[in-house]
Specification:
The chain is α/β, with parallel strands linked by helices. Helices cover about 45% and strands about 15% of the residues. It has one domain: Rossmann fold, CATH 3.40.50.620. The mean pLDDT is about 85. Bound molecules: adenosine-5'-triphosphate and magnesium ion. Magnesium ion (MG) binds next to loops. Magnesium ion binds next to loops.
Length: about 160
Amino acid sequence: MTEAKTSSDAENASSDVFQITKILIAYDGSQHAMKAFTAAKDLAKKYHAELVVLTAVEASPPYFLPQVPPGDEPDNRGYETDKDRKELTELVRLAKADGIDARAEVLDEGGPAIKQILDYAEQGGFDLIVAGTRGLGGFSKMLLGSVSSSLVSRVHCPVLVVR
Ligand code: ATP
Ligand code: MG
């Protein structure tokens, strides 16, 4: 009797702590991120959660100095953003076909991708953030890339890093 009460208390306590209603998947176009997207989509379906597929367009450093005179900037950033948006639209279509409430977000606010992702995640009220172990960088021998390791150490909510 006491045991039954204890286990039901434990169930209630755990569902209060970890409810997944809003998931953020950080997507950089890499195969790692694609794997993470599939995991995020499966979780969103299982928990009937909203899914936001996010790409942050990384500006070239130094972020604080104009590298060319104002007005002469090449228009690559717009092109990249359009390409990113198309890719994300396709992922959102896949998620919606699975019955998930999904939408895409492309951030192009300048500065490092990780800062844009962290700011967005803080404001968005997400219950879970999903990312790949590595991304498009791929040169270092580190197990985790700089974006995924910063997410794990700095974000307010649980992070799932998909290997
Ligand atoms: P680094 O960028 O440090 O050289 P890397 O590219 O191998 O290394 P990360 O950039 O940390 O590794 O990528 C790990 C994961 O972080 C990706 O699989 C993706 O989920 C997410 N991510 C990385 N960059 C972005 C980005 N610009 N926008 C959204 N998500 C990103
Ligand atoms: Mg990277």
